[in-house]
Design brief:
- The chain has 98 residues and is mainly alpha-helical.
- 66% of the residues lie in helices and 0% in strands.
- The chain contains 6 helices and no strands.
- The two termini are 24 Å apart.
């Protein structure tokens, strides 16, 4: 999925690419600022990641909630664009494609 997201992002303007790259860097590298943790997101345990994600999703800070929802939208958009995922959830692709 990461490859598909990268491929799609390469078609966007440089400004949007820069904004998304910055967002991902903040999410990964600034955990100490947002969560009082000195571990990068990718180095956290599953439970720590869940807690960190929930803190972004349920925050009163508009930057955090908007950022979380933006990342969530991209991941979900690409996850549900996969034919094998749609088939596994019972979505009949042939009824919706020409």
């Amino acid at each position: 999925m990461a490859y598909d997201i990268d491929k799609y992002l390469s078609t966007l303007t440089k400004e949007i690419q820069t904004q998304l790259k910055t967002l991902l860097n903040v999410f990964e590298d600034y955990t100490f600022f947002f969560n009082a943790s000195f571990k990068k997101f990718t180095k956290m345990s599953f439970e720590e990641k869940q807690k960190y994600l929930e803190s972004w999703a349920n925050s009163n800070n508009e930057f955090k909630t908007t950022s979380y929802n933006t990342l969530k939208m991209f991941v979900m958009m690409f996850f549900y664009s996969k034919k094998e995922i749609l088939e596994k959830i019972g979505y009949n692709i042939s009824n919706h494609c020409n």
